[in-house]
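Postdoc handover notes: sequence design on the structure in folder B. Input tokens:
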């Protein structure tokens, strides 16, 4: 199948498919004309890539773990226990990022709490006053 058909089949944009190929995640066959030729298993690969991206993994990490994953009826599962440390490391990275995001939200909430008592004003009146030089 051609790239447009793979795009329609998987929901991934043509641009994304080219990016996956550039990252070494997708390896289509090449015709003598230079056109990419995709197989049915490439559609499963794209679905796996998209699932792992949605799980917060980088394309570098996906390149490491995807070959060791099996499609378990719409969900990916590790094919061997050796992948568990890599997946746990990614989970810890995501957990740390979530903590950082929650802390940033809390700081923004504190800022909003101090300004909520102010009357609505003309936005032009809110510009910082530059010190005289």
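Designed sequence:
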């Amino acid at each position: 199948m051609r790239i447009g058909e793979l795009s329609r089949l998987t929901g991934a944009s043509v641009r994304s498919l080219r990016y996956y190929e550039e990252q070494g995640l997708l390896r289509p066959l090449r015709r003598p004309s230079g056109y990419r030729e995709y197989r049915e298993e490439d559609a499963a690969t794209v679905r796996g890539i998209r699932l792992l991206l949605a799980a917060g993994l980088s394309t570098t990490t996906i390149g490491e773990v995807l070959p060791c994953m099996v499609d378990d009826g719409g969900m990916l599962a590790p094919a061997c226990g050796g992948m568990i440390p890599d997946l746990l490391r990614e989970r810890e990275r995501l957990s740390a990022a979530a903590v950082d995001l929650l802390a940033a939200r809390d700081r923004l909430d504190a800022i909003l709490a101090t300004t909520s008592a102010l009357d609505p004003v003309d936005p032009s009146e809110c510009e910082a006053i530059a010190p005289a030089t």
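Context for whoever picks this up: The chain has a mean pLDDT of 87. Don't rerun without checking with the PI first.
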